[in-house]
Design brief:
Layout: H1 2-8, H2 12-22, H3 47-54, H4 56-59, H5 74-79, H6 82-91, H7 111-125, H8 147-157, H9 159-162, H10 178-182, H11 186-195, H12 216-228, H13 244-256
Length: 275
Amino acid sequence: MRSFQYLCATAAPVMMLGMTLLSGCDSAPGQPRKGSESLAPNEVMEFSTLYADNCAGCHGAEGRGGAAIALADPVYQGIADETTMRKLIANGVSGTSMPAFAQSAAGALTDKQVDVITTGIRSRWCRPEILDGANPPSYAAKSAGDAQRGEAAYRTFCESCHGPGGQGGSKGSAITNDSFLALVSDQGLRTIVIAGRPELGAPDWRGNVPGKPMSEQEVTDVVTWLASRRVPNPGQPYFVTNSVAAVYDRRFYSNEQGKTGGHRPPLQKESDHVE
Ligand code: HEC
Ligand code: HEC
């Protein structure tokens, strides 16, 4: 497929040429031998070291997946493009555990190191031939989603594993759990719906119902439905409002009205109680 070949094209040859030129002075007299010195963190330019030190903890050794997706999954590489990936690596994904790595975004890596990682991932793991003939939904949503249609799509494509309402089933975990949804972006959900988590047995967009790949719109709708299940105060087993004063009121004043436990802390003056 032409579009994948384009998506997988990298700047790797240019980078490699640059690195060959840079390493030309190794044997100059008086220079420490290669390997006898240790590099400052911002001088490390080797992909495997950079990947192992910065990414493997979450994305797994060799990109095989861990807490976060397998970056070596050719389906993922087939839908993502290099420019988008580079931006994600540089700036992270806010609200999730994906950190920003570029120094310009308060990360630890130089722009060159971010380039080495990005082009290294592409040159090693992007294998367009694997998707030859398949026509996956696009990486980013092309249209607005509809939560109601998404719920129906959920029943068709996901419920058999993730259970009624996404609350977990025998073959898949709870994916409408408020804490889970609070820590994943909409794109993160979309990526998983399209590429699956093959290393964990989660099918890609083709494999949920045999012989019935999901359409672009069905993917968009199901993500919209999942996103609509987010709650304002995730991870709370009890009701919370935004107002500290209101919480304070409920806790102490209701106790005064004869409920169990606790007592109202002493207020110096009535004016100390800020609404
Ligand atoms: C602390 C865990 C953690 C580390 C370390 C980490 N990531 Fe991630 N990464 C994540 C999570 C979680 C997501 C999904 C975020 C979301 O919900 O969109 C993610 C998403 C991504 C994505 C985007 C996936 C998509 O949907 O398109 C890329 C690319 C990526 N990471 C690359 C890297 C690279 C390269 C490194 C190392 C330089 C790295 N990550 C380090 C946790 C991590
Ligand atoms: C054949 C069973 C199966 C089907 C069908 C399926 N999944 Fe999954 N899914 C899994 C497994 C297995 C995992 C990985 C382990 C886990 O989280 O349960 C997973 C993981 C996920 C995750 C990541 C959960 C996490 O904890 O990181 C999301 C999100 C998800 N699936 C969404 C969906 C959606 C949406 C659909 C329907 C479009 C779907 N899945 C269809 C089996 C399935």
